[in-house]
Each structure stands twice: as structure tokens, then as C-alpha cells.
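Notebook entry, structure prediction.
Reason for the run: the old model in the group folder had no record of what sequence produced it. Starting over properly, with the input documented here first.
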Amino acid sequence: MAALQLVGVCKAFGSVVVADEFTLEVASGEVVGIIGPNGAGKTSTLNLISGTLRPDRGRIVLEGTDITTLPAHLRARAGLGRTLQIPRPFRDLTVFENVLVGATFASPDGSNRKERSIAALRRVGLWDRANDLAGAMTFLDRKRLELARALAATPRVLLLDEIASGLTEPEVQVITATIRELRTEGLAIVWIEHIVHALVSVVDRLVAMSSGRIITVGDPRTVMQDPQVRSVYLGEGAP
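New structure, fully documented this time:
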């Protein structure tokens, strides 16, 4: 059974189509990357999965359970986690308190929330910053905090929205190393990113999309050599 399935998912805003019969399966322990030019529908796809957008038709299935009509907070409690492209921590709270918010949100009864918060901070390398105010963190550490907040909810499927965007090359290496470790723990990951070499170095499969449609999907290096992908995404052969 796939950890996540999208079956014929469609979404349009008037004449603008952001998902056009989008179909994809992601297995536990698999990292799937999504690339495409601006306006291709990448973030909208994550919004459809996470529940901040409702599809016009099609199905979204999490570990065998149809979650198409579930609101976002119930999807989170069902095992779906997400990071945002621009981290927005509670600046006046400590790093630990920020992560505790994520742990509490996903488990309203509060069970093991402190233990899960500590574990999440250790996984992203921020445990030594637990008592620092989030507002004083570097951009890299805010990205890591965003990831820790998602992990504290113990998701089984994790959506990453340009988590490497805005980072220096050494910082990108820090993030990609963490994502590799998460994959070994059996977490299914869907990752959209403009820093293509980061994706190619980590993902098992790469999805290229344009205008809401999947152009091709497969081995990342093969996908990047596809003539249509190079034309649409890299502009090769364009007039």
C-alpha cells in the first residue's frame, strides 16, 4: 500500500489550471521531487495534498484512507506534515516552545509532546538551541526549526516546500543530509524545489510538471535529460 496516492486530481481557478489529472503514488521511505517553472502548479499540488486547497475532482489517499474531503488540521493528525517555503516561527517563543506547538497541534491530548519535541530538535541538529528565542535565529536555523515543527507531529508523509531555497551551498548540504536520514526512517517525502541539484542528489524519483500536468516522472538524471523537460524548465530550444 502506497503511503500517499493522488488519483486524477484536478484543480482550476477559472481558466488557470494548477492540477490537470494529476496522478502519483509515493511509497514509505521514498523521496519524490517535483520540479517545474513558476506557475507550473507545484505549490498548489502541495496545497491540495495538505488540505489548504480542495480539488475539483479526483482523490487523495493517505495510507489507504481517502482524505480528499478532510480539512487540513485533520490531515495533519492523520499523519501528514508540511513545511512552508518561508518559515514563520513564533519569534517571541523559544525554539523548544515553537516545536512544542507543532507537537501539541497534532496530538490534542498532549501525549508524549515533550519527548517528541526533543526528538525532533535532535533530528535537525537544533537541540543545543532549544532555549534560544526563535526570532534571533539565522535563516538556516529557521528552516531547520520549520522542519522540526513538522517532525514533532510524527508524520508518516512529509511535504517540503522549497526547504533549500535561499540557503548557501554549504547550508543546502546540511538540509539534504537531514532529508537523507529521514528517508532511512521510513518517512515518505514529497519535495518541491528550484535548487535542482539538491533534489537530484537525494530523491528516488523526479516529477517534472508544467501547467498542472506531469510531463514525465522517473529516475532524476533521466528526467533532467528529457528534451521536453529541458525545453519547458530550462528554456532550451525556446524561440
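Summary: The chain has nine helices and ten strands.
The old model has been moved to the deprecated folder.
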